[in-house]
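can u pls check wat happens w/ heme C
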Amino acid sequence: MKVIVLATLLFAAGIGQVSAQMMARGEVKFNACKACHQVGDNAKNTIGPTLNGLIGRKAGSVEGYNYSEAMKNSGITWTEMDLAEYIFDPKAKVPGNKMAFTGLKDKQAASDIIDYLHTFDKAPVKLRQ
Ligand code: HEC
């Protein structure tokens, strides 16, 4: 949703092709997550769960992934706002969760990553083989 709104705004401002550039930027920023998370057609749960279809999904719900109790019981259904908070400071957002990541303090980078993750909204969540 945010991607579409932004793209529309930028387009209206006469800057074509920006949304593709934004996607590319998000993909690069996603390198911060890639050591532990996969997205895309053949994504599998690795150190962390696959992030396909993340926005709108209940936290701790990818089948076959061994979540912490903290994540399973967080009561979160991931929105952009939850994600922004979690990426900024995972331990503060979900105390006791096991994501060994200190947080990304660059809010623009976090926002780019969230936009990038939106491109996997419709992809089915893959289960561990
Ligand atoms: C060092 C490995 C590591 C890195 C780097 C990492 N994560 Fe994670 N992530 C995990 C683990 C492990 C979990 C499972 C947490 C739990 O069960 O407590 C997780 C869980 C998550 C979840 C919850 C998923 C769900 O199904 O509810 C999200 C969202 C997430 N990570 C996003 C990110 C993003 C975005 C980045 C990059 C900015 C990132 N992570 C970087 C290891 C990592």
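Residues 2-118 form a domain with the Cytochrome Bc1 Complex; Chain D, domain 2 fold (CATH 1.10.760.10).
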